[in-house]
Every structure is written in C-alpha cells, then in structure tokens.
Amino acid sequence: MNKTTDIDTITEEVDTPDAGVTLKPQLAGHPLLPGENPADKEQLRIALMAEVAPTTAYQRRLAQQLVEYEWEIDRHRRLRDLSILGRYHERAKAVLTQRLPSTPFEICAEVGDA
After folding, report:
1. How many structural domains comprise the chain?
2. 108 domain-assigned
3. pLDDT value of position 101
4. Is residue 99 part of a domain?
5. 69-88 per-residue burial string, b: 16 or more CB within 10 A, e: under 16
6. pLDDT tens across 18-45, in order?
7. H helices present in the chain, as ranges
8. Is the residue at 52 inside a domain?
9. In this model, does residue 7 exceed pLDDT 50?
10. Which of 23, 74, 76, 88 is least enclosed, having the fewest CB within 10 Å?
11. How far is the C-alpha of 34 from the C-alpha of 78, rounded, in Å?
12. How confident is the model at residue 102 (pLDDT cuts 50, 70, 90)?
C-alpha cells in the first residue's frame, strides 16, 4: 500500500516490508559517527516503521523521531560499553606490566570508580 504525503516539500513514501513494498530512504536525522553502519540505522528505521505503521503525517513525524531517539539510545549504550571495556583493558595491561593487584574484584572496583 503506497501513501504519499507532502510535508514541508518533503515527500516520503511510507510502506512496510511486510506489505511487499520497498522503502525509500528518508532524509537523515543526525549524522552517523565514524564506525556506525548506515545499514544498521536503516534496519532499525524499517523495523520501527513497520511496527508503528503510521498513517498520518503527524504519526510519521512521531515515528521518525522515535527512530532517532532509539538510535541515540543505542549509540549511547555502545559508547558507554566501549568506554568501560577500554578502561578495563588499560587496567589489565597495567596489571600485566607493573604487577599491580590483580584480583578480579580489585580490577572491577577500579573500573567502576573511573
């Protein structure tokens, strides 16, 4: 099912993969950071649009915002996990090179404090 709506001169074709119709790319909300895959964001967008199935211009706008919010939340979690992992690796390297206290509890406590 094709629905075309003109919103501030931006035309968007809204369909779901389940309906057997392909989705056209939309203007990007926020630029991707180095290392982020545009296909991952597009997959998130397709999944959320299929789930929400907006039918009005306002619903499409809300759905687009939802995609951006979910992407930002996922980004924050990825960056947080990489930061924690990086600190853990730094501490593990220090333990191996300097013979610092090396019990798992001491390493995890210091990583958690940082």
Report:
1. 1
2. yes
3. 57
4. yes
5. eebeeeeeeeeeeeeeeebb
6. 444 343 444 445 688 888 999 999 999 9
7. 38-52, 57-98, 104-113
8. yes
9. no
10. 76
11. 13
12. low
